[in-house]
Every structure is written in C-alpha cells, then in structure tokens.
Design goal:
alpha/beta; Alpha-Beta Plaits; 6-stranded parallel beta sheet
C-alpha cells in the first residue's frame, strides 16, 4: 500500500513510521524542516512543503497513493485547508484528524467520513486498522489475540452466524454486531452512528453495512480478511 501522511507531529510521525515498518511505502509531509529531517531515515520519503499550497502538493504522487492522511495538529486552519485541497484533488481515500467536536462537524460537512481522534486513538491502532483490508477498528488483547471490528462481507449478507460458520472455518467468535444508523448533526449533515445489537447468537442475521465484532487469533482473523478481500 502507498500512503501520504501530512503533518509529522507526534501522532503523524508515529503513524508514518509504523506503516513503513509494516512494509508499506510512506511519504511524510510537513512544513517544518526539523520534523522532516527527524523522520527522513525512518520512512520511505520525507518532504518539506506547504500542504495548503496547491502548486506544492501537485508535485506529490496523489493519483498513485492509496490513502492520504491529514494528521496536522497544531495549525487548525492548515488542517481544514489541506483537507479541502485533498478533497478538491479527489484523492482515492482521505482520512483527516479532528481535535475538537467543531472540527469534526466541519470535516463531516466537507464530506470526510473517516476521522482520526488522536487523543483517544493511538497510532499503533490506526496503523493496524489501515494495514488490514476491511478492518473498521481493532484492539489487541495480547501479542496473538485481538478483538476486531470488520464490515460484513457481501457473501455473508442475509445469512445467520450459524450459516456462515466462522467458528468452524476460522476458529473465530462473533461477539456482537453493530448497525449503522443515520443521524443529523448540528450543521444538518447526515452522519452514521453505531448501535450495538446485543450479544450475538447462532440466529443473528447479518445485514448489509453491518459491522461484526470478532474475537480470535490474529493469524485466523488475517486469514478471514484476506479470503474476503475481493468482497469489500
């Protein structure tokens, strides 16, 4: 995978470094040369430029990049301007940082669906989420076992947990499912809020756009994700 991480503060630099260690190609971007210098030997490329300048960012390989992450923290104006510019340039997938509820509402109004809350979520958690296709969120319990949220693959839609047999096929337990409910925020923008459906049973039916909360061995979860990659 190819990533561009814009904003190399504590969160952005840590995320860029972890994604690089996972075998991805990562370009780090920051306006401050000292931050670029500190990271240049730890990621694929580190570039010093103004991410709010369309002429500057036009030299970045945006069309060949799978995910652009705007991780700017200190300059809130630059965060919004950079995000707007990435939307204008139609990058494939855009993830942006929000520190305050107001920032989140502005980003949602701009059509940014994936938002990072670095005060609540670690770079380690986001790196794992981005590195595994289909993962919505994850929480590692030990070095070998995790609880992971994944989108319901199309082949499972309309089926019960008994019918898909994840325990038999992958030795994975489905703890619960989450339904996404439309909700309108203060700016009148419709967003999706999660609603936990209770403890899962063999009769639980999987609906389109549902999220399954899984528990299992990391290697078994990765096998499930890889076998269903073409589905999502």
């Amino acid at each position: 995978m190819k990533y561009i991480v814009i904003g190399l503060g504590n969160f952005g630099s840590s995320l860029a470094e972890k994604l690089t260690k996972m075998g991805n190609e990562v370009i780090g971007v920051d306006l401050k040369m000292d931050k670029v210098e500190a990271l240049k030997d730890k990621i694929t490329h580190a570039i010093c430029l103004d991410s709010t300048d369309i002429n500057a960012v036009s030299h970045l390989p945006l069309k060949d990049t799978d995910i652009v992450i705007v991780a700017i923290g200190e300059d809130k104006g630059a965060l919004i301007m950079t995000t707007a510019l990435m939307k204008q340039l139609k990058v494939k997938r855009l993830i942006s940082r929000a520190v305050t509820p107001l920032q989140q509402m502005v980003l949602q109004a701009m059509g940014v669906d994936e938002i990072i809350h670095p005060e609540e979520e670690t770079a380690e958690r986001w790196a794992k989420k981005l590195n595994l296709h289909g993962v919505v969120d994850s929480f590692e319990l030990t070095g070998h076992f995790s609880i992971v949220e994944i989108k319901v693959p199309k082949r499972y839609e309309g089926k019960t947990l008994q019918e898909i047999g994840l325990r038999r096929a992958y030795n994975i337990i489905v703890l619960t499912t989450i339904r996404m409910i439309p909700n309108e925020n203060m700016l009148g923008v419709t967003t999706q809020e999660s609603e936990v459906q209770g403890v899962a049973s063999s009769e639980t039916v999987l609906h389109p756009d549902d999220i399954m909360v899984l528990y299992g061995k990391n290697s078994d979860i990765k096998k499930l994700l890889l076998e269903n990659k073409a589905d999502n």
